[in-house]
Design a protein that fits this description.
Elements lengths: L9 H12 L2 E2 H11 L8 H13 L3 E6 L2 E6 L1 H9 L1 H49 L9 H6 L2 H28 L6 H23 L3
Helix pairs in contact: 5-7, 5-8
Length: about 210
């Protein structure tokens, strides 16, 4: 299970720390949280705005409306609470760094496991092709079913199934992660692209070796 980025109540204090740096509108706060977590956490508006409203009710945050934009700012009472909980904020920041590392590692591991499975399927397919290429010609007494089983067309269907299964597994992993409020770090996407390129090269070499 993907670890939570913020424990209960921690996001409230972290929002105060962001507003202590400068007033922000809601989208700016969401973007700041995304940037601070290296893209592994992008909160929804439904997560941020109710907490801002609660902070405003407590007198810790004020808001001003400029046209269609609402700007939130920390109040003196908010700064006082932030100062009183300075130690708690330091712990939140340390925990946030740990959570971001765990999420990035989890996504990277999922991609690596999917690639490992694909490489195993490709190796099996290559072995089948080599056995087919070195096997003696079929005799008239061999069953047509055996010929069909080792045909290139059937192997092509197997390869298609392996690629589709891999694609489905990776898409499910990534979409589930994003649906839980996470985002994809650039490093993970780079790893995925490199792994896919390596897999494509392996397929090319395996196919070329059977000619």
């Amino acid at each position: 299970m993907t670890p939570a980025v913020f424990s209960h109540g921690d996001l409230r204090l972290y929002l105060l720390s962001l507003l202590a740096e400068s007033p922000q509108h809601g989208y700016g706060i969401i973007q700041a949280l995304t940037d601070r977590t290296g893209g592994t956490y992008t909160p929804s508006a439904g997560t941020i705005y109710p907490r801002l409203a609660k902070l405003e009710e407590e007198g810790l945050v004020s808001k001003t409306v400029d046209g269609r934009t609402t700007i939130y700012a920390i109040t003196d009472a908010g700064r006082a609470e932030l100062a009183a909980r300075e130690g708690d904020l330091a712990g939140i920041q340390d925990g946030l760094a740990d959570s971001v590392r765990l999420i990035a590692n989890e996504v990277r591991q999922s991609v690596q496991e999917a690639m490992k499975s694909l490489r195993a399927d490709l190796a099996t397919a290559a072995q089948d092709e080599r056995r087919t290429a070195t096997s003696p010609p079929a005799t008239a007494t061999q069953a047509p079913r055996d010929d069909a089983r080792i045909s290139s067309r059937e192997n092509l269907h197997r390869a298609d199934a392996a690629v589709n299964a891999f694609r489905g597994q990776v898409r499910a992993t990534l979409r589930t992660h994003v649906a839980k409020g996470g985002a994809l770090p650039v490093a993970v996407v780079d790893d995925l692209e490199r792994a896919l390129n390596a897999a494509a090269d392996a397929v090319t070499r395996a196919v070329s070796s059977t000619r």
